[in-house]
Known about the structure:
The protein is mostly helical and about 400 residues long. The chain has helices at about 25-30, 60-70, 75-85, 90-105, 110-115, 120-135, 135-195, 200-215, 215-235, 235-250, 250-275, 280-285, 290-305, 310-315, 325-335, 340-395; strands at about 1-10, 10-20, 35-40. It folds into 3 domains: about 1-50, no CATH class; about 60-120, no CATH class; about 135-395, Type II secretion system (T2SS), domain F (Receptor-associated Protein), CATH 1.20.81. A hairpin with a 2-residue loop joins strand 1 and strand 2 (about 10-20). It is extended.
Amino acid sequence: MLYDISVLRGKEYTSLRLDAISEQMAVNHAKSLGYTVFSAKLVADSWLSRFSRRERFPLMLFSQEMLALLEAGLNLMEAIEALAEKEQRPEVRQTLQGILRLLSEGQPLSTAMEAFPQAFPPLYVAALRASEKTGGMPESLKRYIAYQGQVEQVKKKVISASIYPAMLITVGGLVVLFLIGYVVPKFAHIYEDMGNELPFLSQLLLALGGFIENHGATLLTGVAVFVVSSAYLLSLKAVRSRLMELVWRIPAIGERMRIYQLSRFYRSLGMLLIAGIPIINALKMVTGLLAPALRVRMLAASEQIRQGQAISAAMELNELSTPVALRMLRVGERSGMMGEMMERISSFYDEETARWIDWFTKLFEPLLMLVIGFVIGFVVLMLYMPIFDLAGSIQ
């Protein structure tokens, strides 16, 4: 959420716009930057304001640069100072300067990062806090970079697989609209002058084209209102959650989404366990990554584990595993390498998801082309059917 903060720094009275999960977090953030806070006000969360929000903190790039500087021999303060000096974006520079200020006051890095929740998620802070106790911050950064790289790889596969079908649907839809909105009315005028009786389907098609020609401005306005209304509804969290629930009920797609969610869940949980976070605390941190339906099951599994039940048994009872994952969890319990085993489970899920995406793409794209070709061919055939009838009657 966005907050307007009225502040004083030195003799300058100004205002800041900060993104935070609560008003108190926004006030603490402003104070950590060296400002005296007078008031904080929540900015109305309209769908237009979502497009004007500032860019996210480049956490992946920050981690990679921090790792390179630490491995080069710089200490923590020197590394963050170097990153702040080279940074050109004001918001990112302010965040790094705020961290430096808290570090100079004696705060550990994880505590300093907690003051900036819009930049550093709880998973990241927890992993670094565990590394502060063991002195293995470079190793923790490497694990996060590898974790984020795997997550981004799966996202890229999903996005790349959806680009071509989206282009087909867009181009096919524009062609159909051009035929119905421009070509069909032209043919309608020709057939009216001919005065011949037309086939029933051709009459319907020409009537539709005439209606679009006569009421084009009204229809265009209606389409614009529909697009704006859809964009507003999709900006509402409750609407998006409801749509996702409906998608989850589709048998094949819902199961794939469940596998994808479990992959993120096990990868995040494995990273925290390797970093030394206790299992109960780690489960609390990663529960928010799951969809609402799985989140309820995860809370039940967490309570069972807290009562002493085995992790594999709790996951099985709450349907948070597959047969292969269940066997791997049991191996992890026997070997004491549960974190590493969860990362292997996630990798297995990612490979399964990639195979399904490839299979679905190879099947869906030809079917989509057939449907678009059928629709366009049907429109053209209905346009030329009277001409074919006329040619037959002349012969």
